[in-house]
Design brief:
A hairpin with a 3-residue loop joins strand 3 and strand 4. The protein is mainly β. Helix content is 10%, strand content 39%. The structure holds zinc ion.
Length: 181
């Protein structure tokens, strides 16, 4: 849960990171940046700032800004009906991203959040810099850890159904609840 009054400052800070990547946002887009706390109510630790540029029944394009050391928790994109699940490519625009995928454990520069070890099972660390990109197969578990300065990435995908994403941590609620204050 996030207080509504906290959101504009988070959006502004995310917009500053995005501008460092040389990405131009229209002024009204700053207020359209979605702040996700994944229901854990510690947005600076577990969260993501996501601006959706386009989302149709077939594809989506977004820019994601993560604050320093912010974690986008482990999840996967499950099959839905005939669809094998969202296929997604990320590309780093600015900063350092530690991407974790399934495979041999290689956590080296990043870290597994303390007290949440069981919720981060994909431990194959891939350090990504601007220009690096990675495509997730449908159903593959992944999570992100931003570097010390934060990170900005593009996300291109087939149809987006965020509400149906699977998360390893049962405490997670994908749709952020906003508390009026
Ligand atoms: Zn994903």
């Amino acid at each position: 849960m996030i207080k509504r009054s906290e959101i504009p400052a988070i959006q502004k800070e995310a917009a500053i990171l995005i501008s460092r990547a040389g990405i131009v946002l229209r002024p009204e887009e700053v207020g359209q940046i979605a702040v996700a706390d994944f229901g854990l109510s510690q947005v600076r630790v577990f969260g993501a700032q996501i601006l959706t540029w386009v989302e149709t029944q077939r594809y989506g394009a977004k820019v994601i800004a993560l604050f320093p050391n912010q974690i986008l928790p482990e999840h996967w994109h499950p099959p839905v009906g005939e669809d094998p699940g969202k296929e997604e490519t990320i590309r780093v625009a600015w900063g350092v991203l530690y991407l974790y995928v399934e495979g041999p454990e290689t956590v080296k520069e990043g870290f597994i959040p303390k007290g949440k070890e069981g919720m981060f099972t994909a431990r194959h660390e891939i350090r990504m810099l601007a220009g690096d990109q990675y495509t997730f197969a449908p159903g593959a578990k992944h999570w992100f850890l931003a570097g010390k300065e934060g990170v900005v990435l593009y996300s291109f995908s087939s149809v987006v159904r965020d509400a149906l994403d699977g998360f390893t941590d049962p405490e997670i609620v994908r749709i952020t609840r906003i508390q009026e204050d």
